[in-house]
Amino acid sequence: MAKKIVAGSAKASRRRARKRASTQLGRRREEFNFRGCTLEELQAMPLEELLELVTARARRSITRGLTEEHRKLLKQIVDEPTAVHKTHRREMLVFPQMVGTTVAIHNGKEYKEVLIQPEMVGHYLGEFALTRRFERHAGPGVGATRSSKFIPLK
Questions:
Q1: d(Cα 49, Cα 132) in Å, to the nearest integer?
Q2: 3 — phi, psi (to 5°)?
Q3: Rounded distance between C-alpha atoms, residue 153 and residue 123, angstroms
Q4: Confidence at 70, pLDDT banded by 50, 70, 90
Q5: From the centroid of its chain, how far is CA 147?
Q6: Positive or negative: CA dihedral 3, 8, 9, 12
């Protein structure tokens, strides 16, 4: 029988053990908690109680009333949670009943598919489909500034 050779010092083995332990802790995820309420409690909660938990801006949107398009989208999402729902309603709030569904949000050019997660409750759909794309700029080229005159062409 061959003997297993362990390379490294005691310090290295302790470091490996710490790394193993930290990755195991990293995999464990805390249960979702929105201002002291679990997702199940949020989904069972009436709209009046939910109003007390959300931010002032979201509270104002809800108290002014949902438009017909918002009610229609919410009803579609609750009725068919597995389907992908396309919408232009970027100002629609994410309600707890929408968690777990996929919504395709229009960003002005195309639809961005977004899986609604518990952390998104109380935010607007438009926050998750950005309308502007960050363009990464390269270095200065020939003719860009006076200093670039002296950059060799080769």
A1: 35
A2: -85, 135
A3: 50
A4: very high
A5: 43
A6: negative
- The confidence score (pLDDT) of residue 6 equals 57
Cα angle 38, 115, 127; round to 5:
90
Q: Tell me the C-alpha distance between 35 and 103, whole Å.
A: 25
* Residues 40-64: tens digit of each pLDDT: 888 888 888 888 888 999 999 989 9
Where do we find the tokens 């083995």? 13
* Amino acid present at 22: S
Q: In what order do the strands lie in the sheet with 111-115?
A: 84-87, 102-106, 111-115
Closest-CA residue to 105 (of 128, 83, 132): 128
Confidence of residue 5 (pLDDT cuts 50, 70, 90): low
Question: How much is the pLDDT for 43?
Answer: 87
Residue 40 three-state SS: helix
